[in-house]
Amino acid sequence: MKNSINVRIQGHPLKLVEIEGSHTVQNVYDSLDVHLGQCYSFLVTANQKPKDYYFVVSTRFTKNVLSTTATIRYEGGNGPASSALPEAPVGWAWSLNQFRSFRWNLTASAARPNPQGSYHYGRINITRTIKLVNSIGTADGKLRYAVNGVSHKDPETPLKLAEFFGVAEKVFIYDTTGDEPPAKTSDKITVAPIVLNATFRNFVEIIFENHEKSVQSWHLAGYSFFAVAIEPGRWTPDKRKNYNLLDAISRNTIHVYQKSWAAIMTTLDNAGMWSLRSLTLERQYLGQQLYISVLSPEHSLRDEYDLPDNTPLCGIVKGLPMPKPYTT
């Protein structure tokens, strides 16, 4: 719910095979850092002496380290292999280097001769760059978390209903955060619905810049994206030369180390209203989230379903006649 963790098994290497639905190059690690909302699959070979081995999970990047253990017991085992727990790595540079070692397996998981790596995302022209900076501050004397100085608040009328009924301008304003953060940072925060107006099938680059001292984690609903880079410092366009444009993992969460930035790339080819949110729950609840509106200009059932007839209506759309259905 809050912290990154490190996972390790005493005396056993971990062979990574999958990250969030994507088969990976099967590198072997002594331990794995797992950040908020992330999912990893690894294989372990039980080829050690028949004893008891510790399975250890401990927090990372926290002042006080919290840890817990389980026991892997071999059949016929005769006591613990060692009473000393395997130590966790130290520092975030180790974790960053591990992220850089993750690679998409370009020869797995699809019909030949078109394996999963046949989608050459690195050759697609970027049509829009969105830079998002997380921050903490106050609004009306209360704690809020923000993106580019704006803290999201759900309106009385759900965002997608407002779009379906053609009354979005009465509920929210598109692009309140802009594609760039404010030039000057401030702890003064604006509270409003955050909806980015995106173009259907555009190929976008999203930069997450973290100026704080804690690790952030973000999830994009409705899409997988290519996590092409994480680096310390501030992002500038010339940093693109450091992107992995060949075999970055296709996934749906990305972490951002303290005082660092992360870059993702994706094609907005799934029409709808999609949530981009912090996975730190108090940050998400207090406004560190936004929505990306992706509308098909053809209003076709090929791209998006109609609003179901039995959808409960509320807010300003309650009592209005149903909108014209999409065409086939």
Task: Describe how the helices and strands are arranged.
Layout: E1 4-9, E2 14-19, E3 22-23, E4 28-29, E5 31-34, E6 40-43, E7 52-60, E8 67-73, H1 92-101, E9 128-139, E10 142-147, E11 150-151, H2 159-164, E12 190-191, E13 195-199, E14 203-210, E15 216-220, E16 225-232, E17 250-251, E18 253-256, E19 260-267, E20 272-278, H3 281-285, E21 289-295
Parallel strand pairs: 9-14, 11-12, 13-21
Antiparallel strand pairs: 1-5, 1-7, 2-3, 2-4, 2-6, 7-8, 9-10, 14-19, 15-18, 15-20, 16-17, 16-19, 20-21
Largest beta-sheet characterization = 6 strands, mixed
Low-pLDDT runs of 5+ residues are none
Chain-averaged pLDDT: 94
SSE sequence, one letter per element: EEEEEEEEHEEEHEEEEEEEEEHE
Q: What is the tally of beta strands? A: 21
Give the spatial strand order of the biggest sheet. 10-9-14-19-16-17
- The secondary-structure class comes to mainly beta
Q: What is the 3D form?
A: globular
State the end-to-end distance. Answer: 43 Å
Secondary structure tally, helices: 3
- CA-based gyration radius: 23 Å
Estimate the strand proportion: 35-45%
In short:
This protein has helices at 92-101, 159-164, 281-285; strands at 4-9, 14-19, 22-23, 28-29, 31-34, 40-43, 52-60, 67-73, 128-139, 142-147, 150-151, 190-191, 195-199, 203-210, 216-220, 225-232, 250-251, 253-256, 260-267, 272-278, 289-295. By secondary structure, it is mainly beta.
List keywords for this structure.
6% helix, globular, mainly beta, 35% strand
